[in-house]
Design brief:
The structure holds 2 protein chains of 2 kinds. Chain A has 12 helices and 2 strands; from the N terminus they run H-H-E-E-H-H-H-H-H-H-H-H-H-H. Chain A is mainly alpha-helical. Chain A has a domain of about 210 residues: MetI-like fold. Chain B is mainly α. Chain B contains 12 helices and no strands. The chains are: A mainly alpha, B mainly alpha. At the A-B interface, helix 1, helix 3, helix 4, helix 5 and helix 6 of A face helix 1, helix 2, helix 4, helix 5 and helix 6 of B.
């Protein structure tokens, strides 16, 4: 950050520079766009969601407590149900499956890269992980549906595994967030001071002990942050789940069977946008209500992760 | 959780030292487990690449680039998606560059250290963690309906601009930060105003880094599907217009891929989709290589 400024006293500009002030104001405006974006997101999501709850027959309480999601008809119809729980359940099921894959793989890679890998191996693996992180999610959705699903069906039997299922999407979402978890956790472990490692070696600890009992616990807050960020990323994932997990909100809650068709919050948004429901209809406005919930959850995750990162920075 | 106490640690170490063969076995087992967990992610990458190439390579020919989508898998092509993706790139580039560089210059060179600046920084970090589909909802409401662009190229482009802006700002700030302080001090000592120093010394010196970040953000933008899918890209209908015009309907390569995978016929789901994926991945590869070349060339100086 530049500390150098034209100081006060006789060296300050003799006359006001209006042009410069205007340019500075313009730069300030550029920076302010980001705040406007955040404010815009909040206003749009909550404003449009509120307009849904003003439609007669749509209640906030039912939205959070009802166990069926059928916002496709007029609210006065018998069929109409607007409980977001099936979507939330689907999202959490997929996220849980993803974390089951991503936590061991991500943290395993992080420990390996930070404590075990020789520099040359590190130099090859890190860009490969970055490449994995850069693959568009629509491509991973294709991979889930045309590779992972047939694989699961041949292993567990086609009669047990439907074409659209939570497991296939969950596994691939897990693979998607491995690089996120690995790179943040690795940064945290690399930042652990050498002294701690050498002290442990001096006491006769083995490499495994140093890695798992000294460095890992010492980097724990950074590792927790990595996992939370991965979790947030998994919750907001859209394309993999729309393509591979299906579009059927589970009827029986809680839905825990990974081999069933589900519909996540994000998949509903994509489905409803692709349809022809007009603006102002419940079907359409519901995407914003679902979006608002998604935003709140991911935002909370990000804030939580930042707290852990900050705590980690304070330690070292 | 605290670090194991030295006493506990030495006890553990002693235990291990006593049973020497067991210790070696445990050591190599741990090493193997960690190596395998790293290898799995890399293996997936390889499997993915092989899978896509073997599915899609046979379907790639000149017609695939020059024809529009069709009901028939053997006639379909992604011409509209290619022009759409290129148009989106241009639109995102010309909007994010001034906005991102302006914001980075402000934050890095001029911002006073006050609460508003801190708010800006925290906010930019938070925006980078917002799911991309949420940006789609923002674009749908603001650009498509409130401003009234409709489901047009400009709505999708501006949505992507908002999405990648935090990334551009962060990378441009890093590039500005890496410019040696002496350059600024020299400029100021010669009587230049802070703004002149920023515009004529700092920013040009940081340009390779800024451009690298810009290219990487663009490659992120054109791979995104959810935001433009929500903010108005045509997915399910026939897309046979060339979406050069900012106020006309548009589609993009990722949207084509989504559409192909969604279709019931296996030829679309597998071969045609994989062929479109190859085109997208080659484009991304070219852009990322350009970014790397740029970074390496200038970091040597």
């Amino acid at each position: 950050m530049s500390q150098a400024r034209t100081g006060g006293g006789p060296l300050t500009a003799s006359r006001p520079r209006h042009g410069e002030r205007a340019v500075l104001a313009l730069l300030w405006l550029c920076a302010a766009v980001s705040v406007v974006t955040t404010v815009g997101i909040v206003i749009v999501l909550f404003g449009e969601a509120a307009s849904m709850f003003r439609i007669p027959g749509v209640s906030v309480i039912e939205f959070f407590t009802d166990t069926a999601w059928r916002p496709f008809t007029d609210p006065s119809s018998e069929q109409f149900r607007i409980g977001v729980l099936p979507l939330l359940n689907s999202t959490l099921l997929i996220t849980a499956l993803a974390m089951l894959v991503a936590i061991p793989l991500g943290l395993g890679s992080a420990v390996y890269l930070s404590e075990y890998a020789p520099p040359r191996v590190r130099k090859t693996i890190k860009p490969a992980l970055e490449t994995l992180a850069g693959i568009p999610t629509v491509v991973l959705g294709f991979f889930a549906l045309t590779f992972m699903t047939p694989l699961l069906r041949s292993v567990f039997g086609a009669e047990n595994v439907p074409i659209f299922n939570a497991a296939s999407a969950g596994i691939v979402v897990g693979i998607l967030i491995v690089p996120t978890i690995a790179s943040i956790a690795e940064d945290a472990m690399t930042a652990v001071p050498r002294m701690l490692r050498e002290g442990a070696y001096g006491l006769g600890a083995s490499k495994r002990h140093v890695a798992l009992r000294v460095v890992f616990p010492a980097a724990l807050s950074g590792i927790v942050a990595a996992v939370i960020l991965g979790f947030g990323r998994a919750i907001g994932e859209t394309l993999i789940v729309s393509l591979a997990a299906g579009n059927l909100p589970p009827a029986d809650l809680p839905a825990v069977n990974p081999f069933q068709q589900v519909q996540t919050m994000t998949a509903y948004i994509v489905q409803a946008v692709g349809g022809e429901s007009p603006r102002g209809s419940v079907t359409f406005q519901a995407i914003f209500a679902v979006g608002a919930l998604l935003f709140v959850v991911t935002f909370a995750m990000n804030l939580l992760a930042q707290r852990f990162v900050r705590r980690f920075r304070e330690e070292y | 959780m605290a670090i194991s106490s030295p006493a506990k640690l030495s006890r553990q170490a002693n235990d291990d030292l006593r049973s020497s063969p067991g210790r070696t076995a445990k050591e190599s087992a741990t090493h193997a487990v960690l190596l395998v967990s790293t290898a799995i992610a890399i293996a997936v990458l390889v499997v993915l690449a092989v899978d896509i190439l073997s599915d899609g390579a046979g379907r790639l020919n000149l017609d695939f680039f020059t024809s529009y989508v069709s009901r028939f898998p053997e006639e379909t092509g992604i011409r509209a998606g290619i022009t759409g993706t290129l148009s989106l790139m241009v639109l995102v580039a010309i909007t994010t560059f001034p906005l991102g560089v302006g914001a980075a210059l402000y934050l890095e060179e001029f911002a006073p250290r006050n609460r508003f600046t801190r708010l800006l920084e925290v906010n930019i970090n938070n925006l980078a963690g917002v799911p991309s589909v949420i940006y789609g909802l923002l674009g749908l409401s603001v650009f498509v309906y409130v401003i009234g662009f409709g489901r047009a190229l400009i709505s999708g482009g501006l949505t992507l601009t908002l999405l990648v802006l935090p990334i551009v700002i962060v990378s441009a700030r890093e590039a500005l930060r890496s410019v040696p302080r002496e350059i600024r001090a020299g400029g100021l000592a010669l009587g230049a105003t802070p703004l002149q120093v920023a515009a004529r010394q700092t920013l040009p010196a940081a340009m390779p880094g800024v451009l690298t970040g810009m290219i990487l953000s663009l490659s992120r933008a054109i791979g995104e599907t959810a935001p433009i899918l929500v903010a108005g890209a045509i997915a399910f209908r026939r897309a046979d217009n060339e979406p050069w015009h900012p106020f006309e309907a548009f589609t993009a390569i990722p949207i084509h891929i989504f559409d192909f995978v969604k279709r019931p016929q296996a030829e679309f789901q597998v071969e045609v989709a994989a062929a479109a994926i190859i085109v997208l991945m080659v484009l991304l590869l070219v852009m990322n290589s350009a970014a790397i070349v740029l970074r390496n060339r200038y970091s040597r100086i």
